[in-house]
Every structure is written in C-alpha cells, then in structure tokens.
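tl;dr need the bound structure. longer version: we got a ligand (manganese (II) ion) that a collaborator sent over and nobodys looked at where it sits. i said id run it. heres the input, straight from their email, havent touched it
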Amino acid sequence: MSWFLSCVAPRRKAYKRLSARAPLSFGTEFLSVKEYMMKAKATLDAGLPFISDSNKVYIITGNESADMDSFVSALIFGYLTMCKYIKEGQESVLSEKKPSGLTDVGAFMSIINIPRDELMLRPDIMFILEKLDLPMDSLIFKEDILKADIKPEFTYWGLTDHNKMTGELAMLYDKRVVSIIDHHEDEGYSWSADPRIIEVVGSCTSLVTQYFKEGWLMDEPLWPDNDTTALLCLAPLLIDTYNFTLKVTDTDIYMRDFLLELLKYSNYILSDPYYFADNYYMQLIEAKRNVDNFTLRDHFRKDYKEWTEWNGLKLGMCSLVVRLDWIACRFSDEFWCGMESWAVERNGLDVVALLTAFDVDGMLNREVLLWVRNPDLIPVFDKVIKEMEYRFTLMTLKNDGVLAPGYKPGFWAWSQLDTSASRKQIGPFLRGVLQNSHIKKIGY
Ligand SMILES: [Mn+2]
C-alpha cells in the first residue's frame, strides 16, 4: 500500500481486521488461575455452546503420568496463553494491531490426563491445590473430554511434558496439535507446532516459565496472579530436581532464581528465598510421600509403565515412593498375591519390577525388586543377573519375611547403590533381556 493510500485507508478496513479474532467465551477481563479453572470447567459442563469452526477450543494437556510437572505445565501454559490472548485482544482494539497467532480460539482449558479416580494417587497435587486455594472440583480429567465428544476440527491441542499424543486422546486428536513444550526425547511429530520447544532440562515447567518470562516482567504484568503462577511453577522444578541436587540444568537454576525473585516481595517469602524454597520442597515431598491411605494396588498403579515386546513378552514396572521393607511389612500377607493379581489385571505380565526411590536424611535412596513371573524366563534371567548387579551397583537386600532371598522362585531384591540410574536405564536393560529371548508368553 502506498503512503497516500495508507493515509486515506478507511477505518472500516482496520475494524474488519480486528474482528478477525474470535470472541473469547471467557470474556475480555483478566482472570486469576482459579477463575480460569472454574470458567473452563463451567464451559465444558455447559457443553461448549459457542463452539464452531471459527470459535475453537484450545485444550492443553500434560502426559499420562500426570505428575506435578505435567499438571502444572499444562495449567500454566493454558492460563498464560489465555492471558496473552486477552491482552492482545485489548491492544488490537486500541492500536489496530493485528492479533498474532491463532485467531479462531474461543476458549482455553487445561486438563489432567488421567481418570478422575487416580487423582487420589497424587497427594502432592491435592496438597498444592489446597495450599493455593485452587478448586479441586474444577479439574478437567481425560474422561470429561472424551465424554464431551468434541469434534476434532473444533479443537486445537497443546502438549506439555510430552511431544506425541498418546492413548485414547491420540486416536481422536493427534492431528490437531498446535503447540509443544517438552523435556523428553523428540519423537519427531507435529513439526508445524508453534511453539515447538523440546529441550532436555530437569523440569518441563522450566521451559514453560522461560517461554512466558517476558510476560511477568512487563510494567503491567500480563496476568493478575503473579504469586500463584510463580508458586505453581516452582513446585515441579523443586520436585523433579530433588531440590536442585539431580538432573539440574542451567535453565532450571535460572528459572528457579527468576521465580524466587518474583516472589521476593510476596507474603510467602519472609526472609531468605532459598530457605523458603527448601521449606516448600520439604512440604511438597512430605505431601507426595503421604501414602497412608493407599492400598497395595494403589502403590502399583500410582506410577506405572508397561511394555510388550515383539515376542509378546510383557514387562510391568512400578515406581514407588516408599521402601521395600516398609511395604512388605505393611502388606505382609497380601504382598505376593497382590503382585500376582496386579500381573493378572495387566493382562498377564511376564516380568514385574518395583523400583523405589526415597529420602534418608536428605539423601536419595533406591531399591529394585525383580520378579520373573514366567517360569520359563527364570533361567534366562539367571544368566544376566550378575551383569545387571554390576551395571546398576545392586547389593542384595538383607531381609526376612516375604522379601527374604529365595522366598519365591525368580525373585530378587536389591539396594541400588548407584542412585543415578532410574527407570530410564533399568527399563531398557530388562526390555533387552525380554527382546532377546525366545520364550513363550505366560498368558494370564
Ligand atoms: Mn516432566
């Protein structure tokens, strides 16, 4: 457009550009995190009455483990994106600035990618909801989304803490992913997503914090809820890095310091911010370890991963936050039949491994229990046990009762001296053993 034409361009044209952004069903006022959650749930409960091709719903989800990192990164990414959206909407009206990004979004919602009845297995999330006065009954679970039966073409999806959609959601919506922020290995999907940030850091929430950093620093912050957002973001950073002792990168440290700086003048921090962070970490860990009401099955299903190999052999791995002797003592009589029924419930596991991680005087401890349930596989494992013990520095656990060595055929229990190895290393080792054997699957 020439200079002359731009001077005389009718205002009507500018107006037309502005109205290109879909009206937000959430309104144009800034919402707190709490209000965001409530609005999103109410909108879903009302059956998304506004939804259309030009008024889509933008759904943000973490991964299926739904740990603190997944929960917070999805909640914060959804909330802050919505706030940016509202701000841009206001600005575009004032300055005739064209809105950037997606212009056909009418609502945002962050979801938690588990069935509702599994929330009780995540006491740290329940703790933070209560601490920050966020409404538990406004959480949106996987089944709520499936039940709402939203047409894929009326949705956009954002993934946090994973970069490839999984499970039932993927069958419907995996073509609709428009944004990814994650710290796992890049699985190479959704190349047009924007942002598409995949970097190895301790906590995915570090990357989300970094992405929105400018928004916190503006003269008029983009969101009204600085304390809540900063406290939320800090929680997974502390948990995932074991209070900055493991898996820490410079980004995590930088983001922790940034968040603490934001909180410095809040009512939460009365003296040294690092003292506050230590304290906050202790509270979160204490909540996470509060498993008093758990059944044995709850312990198994809390943080569970499973693999089926090419030959049909199945490995199930449960990560526990309590020590083996504690669990064996608490569930002594039902321990082995509980293991058996878990293996059956999971459609016939050939090998079950329990990995424990717990704190003793601020030091991380780990143990491994391996149960080769398929009797044909026991001789196969007999041959690799020495190598496994060497690889992960495993020391036979001194124990009696149901965990005594030899109590059950094909069962070993160790204390793991090299605590740097986790499921990410032990899983592939066990899978390798299964993949290389020519044993028939156990069935049920
Ligand atoms: Mn994570």
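gonna send this back to them w/ a short note. The pocket of manganese (II) ion is lined by residues 69, 161, 183, 203-204 (CB under 6 Å).
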